[in-house]
Amino acid sequence: MNQLIGAVGRKTIFSFNHITKLFALTYHILRLIVFPPKAGRVVVRRIALEQIYFTAVEALPIIIPVAIIFGSMIIIQFSKFSGQMDLGRITVLIILRELGPIITAFLIILRSATAVTIEISYMNVFHEIDALEMSGVDPFWIVCVPRLVGITMALLCLFIVFDIVAIIGGYGVVWMVTYINLGDYLLQIANAISAADITVGIIKAVLFGFTITVTCLYHGFNTRKHITQIPVATSKASLQCFLYCIVINVIISTLFYL
Predict the structure, then answer these.
(1) How far is CA 244 from the centre of its chain?
(2) CA 94 – CA 18 distance, rounded (Å)
(3) What is the Cα–Cα distance from 119 to 113, expressed in whole angstroms?
(4) Angstrom distance (rounded) from CA 148 to CA 26
(5) Helix, strand, coil % in the chain, rounded to nearest 5
(6) 75-124 pLDDT, tens per residue?
(7) 163: CB partners within 8 A, 6+ apart
């Protein structure tokens, strides 16, 4: 019994220290964004734009079909109960509030977060981070800031794209390939969407972007100086990103809608 209590206590302390370090890294990066150094601004801007292109633009061929599939599935399933509930309100509730941010975050984790962890881990293992420090360049400014800005902005844009495509594209697919009578579905959507729904979605997308990026950067910077540790760091970062995003999603939904 004492061993079990001790193991739980050690795990709790370790988790608390880990989250504290993530907050400290977030604070340091945000401080660089608010008070940016004069040197390297052009490089940081270029890297941020490249990150946005890689994370957002190149992910569109994935996010659009996924959004259409989810949107059409939700409309088809809940149209069976259209006489008992507002189909537009249900669609807004499921897609805009919950599925849009979380599915976008999951796709970003699978596609871009793992890539960032691997990239930073390789830079750490092959002493590129040390080389930046020896040359007088702050690696947090050159490496962390553009990726935080790029991934967060990309996730926010993809969240908007997912919601629009899921609602309108799903409606279009159902209208073309089925005989389901949707009535004034789009009017129901317009009446159901509120400012709170949009605000909550944006808050979730921004927090997901921060959480995913900081978690991946943390594991990349803390990879041991051995190449076999890179897959371990990538796996830990991905799993923690999934867990943190789900927890944040539940907390925000509870705070705003309960």
Answers:
(1) 10
(2) 32
(3) 10
(4) 9
(5) 85, 0, 15
(6) 887 776 655 457 777 888 888 888 888 999 999 999 888 999 999 999 98
(7) 67, 95, 96, 100, 201
